[in-house]
Amino acid sequence: MLRQFHKMHGLGNDFVILDARDEPLAMTEALARHIADRREGVGCDQLILLEPSASADLKMRIFNADGSEVESCGNATRCVVKLTGAATVETAGGLLTGSAEGAEVEVTLVEPRFEWDAIPLAYPMPTDPMPMGWENFDRPQAINVGNPHVVFFVDDLEDADLEGIGPGIESDPVFPERVNVNVASVEGGAIRLRTFERGAGLTRACGTGACATAVAAIRARLVTSPVTVHMAGGDLTIAWAPGEPVRMRGSATHVFKGTIDLQ
Ligand SMILES: N[C@@H](CCC[C@H](N)C(=O)O)C(=O)O
């Protein structure tokens, strides 16, 4: 079965986007993993499946490179808004809104959640910060911005062995749905960020990671809103105030269109 796909990226966080709004497509964990494989498939950090929605312009389903289906993806939302012109996007993590603003796309995500069972954590404990540590990664803030994140602030970002420690934190039993792991530093009123994504590993940028980290830094009064978040793939501007949804602005790039044989 041949299907057309779009290859897009948001700051180097790359996606294969399949549009199943008119022609349904049964996605499985194994098929998503195969399409995301960089040697045997097209290759991407996340596979995005567009479906019809009763409550928004379209529904966006998100599959990590390991095939797991998850709730939210900030960079992919900007790409989908740019590709389709959708103003409202239904996700498992909530209803998102977006609009193209010149070369950039602005997306409003959900209101961040901080309660232990909204992250979710396995049992009750404080989340700001969590009284836990993994080697020299200590006392993260836990935040759900549609999907689960922990944020560690460190003095030396380059020195942090995120690739080494990321898998253990991602899969620690204290996170029953696993977790995205962010390591950040604050420099001159801006944030520098690296993210080890649940189900995808180190990526060049993570939109929801940037949002969770900006919220954590604003709450801790380390920065003020709006704040620039620098990542390996480029920058995002994040705005947030307590009691409000978090807003993200940045680029979205179409790379190519292709056809894939799904059999
Ligand atoms: N790259 C994304 C996040 C994708 C999902 C994440 N790995 C998860 O499992 O929650 C972004 O830009 O937000």
TrEMBL record:
GO molecular-function terms, A-Z: diaminopimelate epimerase activity
Domain of life the protein comes from: Bacteria
UniProt xrefs under InterPro entries: DAP_epimerase_AS, DAP_epimerase_DapF
Keywords, in A-Z order: Amino-acid biosynthesis, Cytoplasm, Isomerase, Lysine biosynthesis
Major localization listed first in the record, in broad terms: cytoplasm
Sequence intervals crossing the membrane: none
Residue sites binding substrate per the record: 13, 46, 64, 74-75, 147, 180, 197-198, 207-208
Pathways involved: Amino-acid biosynthesis; L-lysine biosynthesis via DAP pathway; DL-2,6-diaminopimelate from LL-2,6-diaminopimelate: step 1/1
Protein name: Diaminopimelate epimerase
Record bears the keyword Isomerase: yes
Subunit structure: Homodimer.
Originating organism: Sphingomonas kaistensis
Active site: 73 (proton donor), 73, 206 (proton acceptor)
Protein's cellular compartments: Cytoplasm
Annotated positions for site Could be important to modulate the pK values of the two catalytic cysteine residues: 149, 197
Catalytic activity: (2S,6S)-2,6-diaminopimelate = meso-2,6-diaminopimelate
EC number in record: 5.1.1.7
